[in-house]
Known about the structure:
The structure is a homotetramer.
Chain A (H helix, E strand, L loop, with lengths): L11 E6 L15 H16 L10 E12 L8 E11 L3 E10 L7 E11 L10 H7 L4
Antiparallel strand pairs in A: 1-3, 2-5, 3-4, 4-5
Amino acid sequence: MSKSHKREDYKYFLEIPTRWMDNDVYGHVNNVVYYSFFDTAVNRALIEFELLNYNQSEIIGLVVETSCTYHRPISFPDVIEAAFKIDKLGNSSIRYNLALFKKDESEPCATGYFVHVYVDRLTRKPRQLPHQFREKLENLK
Amino acid sequence: MSKSHKREDYKYFLEIPTRWMDNDVYGHVNNVVYYSFFDTAVNRALIEFELLNYNQSEIIGLVVETSCTYHRPISFPDVIEAAFKIDKLGNSSIRYNLALFKKDESEPCATGYFVHVYVDRLTRKPRQLPHQFREKLENLK
Amino acid sequence: MSKSHKREDYKYFLEIPTRWMDNDVYGHVNNVVYYSFFDTAVNRALIEFELLNYNQSEIIGLVVETSCTYHRPISFPDVIEAAFKIDKLGNSSIRYNLALFKKDESEPCATGYFVHVYVDRLTRKPRQLPHQFREKLENLK
Amino acid sequence: MSKSHKREDYKYFLEIPTRWMDNDVYGHVNNVVYYSFFDTAVNRALIEFELLNYNQSEIIGLVVETSCTYHRPISFPDVIEAAFKIDKLGNSSIRYNLALFKKDESEPCATGYFVHVYVDRLTRKPRQLPHQFREKLENLK
Lengths: 141, 141, 141, 141
C-alpha cells in the first residue's frame, strides 16, 4: 500500500454519496465509514455479476481481514467513487485491493484491502469458489 | 401522515444508494437508517442553497422531533430517492415532510417528518431564521 | 409525548454506552442514533424474555412506525439508559413508549415510541401474537 | 497479528454492548462495526486520561491507518470487551494494538491496530505529542 495508486490501477468503480451522519466531530467522514464504502462496493459488484444472492446463496463470503490507509479527508456532502481490483482469487478466498476517490481527483483519499473467505451458509465451513466466480471475476484482476 | 403520498407532493429530491451494512438480519434496511436518509436530504439541500456551512455557520439547526411510518421494505442494493417539502417555516424552526421512493415507483416506501430548531452555535439559544432562509426555502413549501 | 416523563413511567431499562462515531459535527449524538438505542432496548428485552430468536423465530417483528422527541443533547462518552414500557399489546402489534436517560438524571433526554407488527418470517403476512407474548409482556405495561 | 493473543497482552479494557443494527444479513456483527469498537475504546481512554477534549483540544488525533483480522463472529446481544495496548508512542503519532473479546473468553474474536497522527486542530499540520501523553500513556505499552 506504500506506493501511489491511480484510477487506472482499478477495474470496478461505484459512486457512493456521503451521508450527513458519516461526519464526525472534526467535520470529516469517520474512519469507520470507509470500510462501509469498501464492503458496499464489493457486495454491489457481486450482486451485479449474479454471484451473490444474500437471501439464498448456498455459499457466502465472510470477511476475515480488512485494512485502510487514510491519505486525505473526505467530508459530507462529497461523492466518493469506491474502486477495486481483485488482487488474488484463491481456492476459497478473494482478496480485493480498494481505493476511494473524490470525483475529478486522480489520487485516492484512501486505499486498502478486504479479504472474503467463502463458507457454506449453514455449516460455515470453507468452500471452494465455484467456477463462475473465476469466470466473472478474472477480468477484474 | 395517514393519507397517501405521491411524488408530486414533494419539492426536493435526492438520490441515495443503500449500503451493504444498512441491511439488518431480516434482509431489509434497518428502521434506524431511514432517518439517515432524512437528515442527509435536508442537510444536503441546505448546503446546496448556501444556508448551511457546518464548520462556520453562526446558527445551526438542532433536531427536536422526527417521525417515520414504514410502508414497504427497502433492501440493499436499492437506490432511494429521498424527497421533501417544507411543511412549516416558523419563527426559529422548520418542519419538513419527507418520503422515500424507490426509483420508478410512485408510492413511497416510507413517509415522515423532521423538525429543526435554529440556535446560536455557541450559546445554543434559539435564534430567528435569517431572511435568506425564507427567500430560498419559500418555494419548497 | 407532551407531558413530562420520569423514570417511574418505564418498566424495562438497558444501559447503552455511546460510541465515538455516534457524535456528529456539532459534538452531539446524531438524531438517527437515538432510534438505534430504541430498537436495541426492545430487541434485547425480547431476546431476554425468550420471545425472539432472530435466526429461527417463525414470526418476526417488523417496524411500522417510530417517533422521537429530543429534549436535551447526549454526547460521547455518555452512558444512556434506554427505558420503555408497553403502551399497547394489540392483536398482531406491540407499541412501546421509550425514553433515554443519562445516568443519575430523572428527566429524559429523549422520548418516543416504536411499533412492531408481527409477521410470518417467510410470507411476511401479519400473524397473531402468540400467548407467551401476552404472558411475558403484560407486566411491562 | 499472526500469533495468538491473550487478555494479558492488553492494558486497557472497555465493555461495549453490541446493538441490534450492528448485525448484518448473515446474523453477525458487520465487519465495519469492529472499527467503531476500536475507535470508541481509544477515544474513551484518551478522554478518561484527560488527554482529549474533542471540543477544545488544540491538537487532535487523525486516523491514518487501521486494520482488523476477524477470528470468530460476534452477534447481538453479545457484550464485547475492547482491549488495547500502545504499540508505539512516536514523535507525533500513536499506534494501538487492539483486540475484541467476548466476556469470559480468553481468545479474541478479532485483533487489529489503529494509528493516530496528532495535528493542530486549525491548520491540520502534524504536531509533537505533548509530554503529558508520554507520562500518562507510557504504562499502557
